[in-house]
Amino acid sequence: MPEPLHALALKHREPLKFAVVGGTAFLVDNTVFYGLKLTILEPKPVTAKIIAVLVATIVSYVLNREWSFRTRGGRERRHEAALFFLVSGVGLVLSSAPLWISRYVFRLETPDVSLVTQEIADFMSAQIIGTLIAMVFRFWALRKWVFPDEQAQSGSVRLAPDTTDEAA
Prior knowledge:
Layout: H1 3-11, H2 13-37, H3 45-68, H4 77-105, H5 115-146, H6 164-167
């Protein structure tokens, strides 16, 4: 990699890693969503989307914890996981809302529209708009609350060994 590009990649490695994890989670989400939507959950696309996001969220947690944000944190693992899934729950609502609006507010579903129109509307609302909204929120929230920079954690208390008792 050329030096200017290498330096730029190093400077922005955290967002780039987050984007790679997001791309992987996007593929998992799409695979599960369409696998369910085109088979056993055909009449329930929002349910298929919610299940797909849950599976992708689990994959995302593991990859973000072990790769994207591995130099951040310092929280107890259970606390960190709980915060991650809380943030992801908000992300789930944000990513599912455009599909719900498309289907049930704008009525972009058969027989009101053609099957092609329904599928394009589902893809655009669930996989593009919903994913982008949730991605921006998750990146901000994960950095702020789940994997904060240890030096920036004003609310956390890291106790140093108490040396006053040893002197007594």
